[in-house]
Amino acid sequence: MKTRFLCQLLETQYPIIQAPMAGGILSADFIAKVCEFGILGSIPSGYLSLAQLEASIEAVKSMTDRPFQVNLFVDHSEYPEKIDKPVEVIELEKSLGIFISHDCSLPKLPSTSDIIDLIIAHQVTAISTTFGVLRDEEYQRYKKAGGHVMVTVNSFAEAHKILSADHADMIVYQNALAGGHKGGFNDAEYDIDAVILTLKKDYPKIPLIKSGGIVNQQDILLALEQGFDGVQIGTGFLMTQESSASETYKQALLGLCDDKQLMQTSSITGRKARGIVNELAMLELSQLPVFPLQHYATKAIRDHAKNHDLPQYQSLWAGSGAVSITSLPLLEDYMFSLVNG
Ligand SMILES: Cc1cc2nc3c(=O)[nH]c(=O)nc-3n(C[C@H](O)[C@H](O)[C@H](O)COP(=O)(O)O)c2cc1C
Fold first, then answer.
1. Residue 185 C-alpha to ligand 1 middle, in angstroms?
2. I need a surface site. Which of 16, 17, 86, 206 has the fewest CB within 10 A?
3. Does residue 129 have its Cβ closer than 6 Å to ligand 1?
4. How far apart are CA 253 and CA 325, in angstroms?
């Protein structure tokens, strides 16, 4: 019943969301196939210019009439055009033979308000927010246009804060098993599933979506049994043949056999994120630039590592569920297994 409510809201066949994953890991073709199957596809807008985001939206729309969502990194701060890289990053660049300059440039990223205008113009009816929350005016403008807003949280306190302000239609609760960045807006500690589910008492009509560590049908059924209305899956989709993760990345994911091979690190982007333990993730910095400054400070290293198949210096985001995946299925087979076992 609750599940049907979420599907009605998202206009999908299944209460499953393909997690937004920034960094060019999922093509428009991939996202459209997910939508066609009856799962909600997600276009990540993180690190994209407005033109790049619009091209992604148009590409997905050209391949499917089914709904999809756009994910926003919400950050109302202003950043400089250039920053000095941390000394440890410069040392690492020198050791890899790629050092060119002490500083690095930051691209001009679109404002949240500009992204909202774009998605309204394209009649995208669902968004999810990460790292921050919409300003009241942005929220109202999108709601007036008929949109639904999912807010990523890691804790009960974050969920309660946004729901008591009447600023969310759905909550994406990302737990400690999730791959990639910790997506909440208060840098709160992770709560456990049972604590999040107590929200049902005060907000019975708000769908709760569980994200983190879900890779197969059994995990989905457990989430629904616990009382969640749906699930969001990242690493499982990453580990399909059609994902654009590099071969080195996929092999590193397949090589995981223990949770201890994963860690949470801020060194790569300036924000806490969960991925495979490697030299870059373990880099210790005396002064860490905030997100996204450190993301751009380490970009040359990560690009070099990707181009030269060096897993030690890439960002290899992964959730705990990766440990239980032993082969890379075709996307279609993976989605079929999620809903049919
Ligand atoms: C490679 C990668 C990139 C991600 N990028 C984003 C992103 O752009 N926006 C976002 O809200 N979450 C992002 N996440 C987090 C996912 O949305 C989701 O919370 C997480 O993958 C769920 O855990 P799982 O990987 O165990 O399924 C990313 C996760 C991964 C693995």
1. 15
2. 206
3. no
4. 8
Structural domain boundaries, residue 51: 2-76+111-241+336-340
Is residue 279 in some structural domain?
no
**pLDDT tens readout for residues 210-263:** 999 999 999 999 999 999 999 999 999 999 999 999 999 999 999 999 999 999
169, two tokens = 């239609």
Question: Cβ atoms within 10 A of the Cβ of 272, count?
Answer: 15
Question: Nearest to residue 267, comparing CAs of 241, 297, 244?
Answer: 297
Residue 178 lies in a domain: yes
d(CA 238, ligand 1 centre) in Å:
10
Is any atom of ligand 1 closer than 6 Å to the C-beta of 46? yes
| CA–CA separation, 133 and 244 (whole Å) | 29
248 within some domain: no
| Within-domain flag for 177 | yes
Q: Which residues of the chain have pLDDT under 70?
A: 1-3
CA of 245, closest atom in ligand 1: 1
Query: How many domains are contained in the chain?
Result: 1
What predicted TM-score, i.e. pTM, was given to this entire model? 0.98
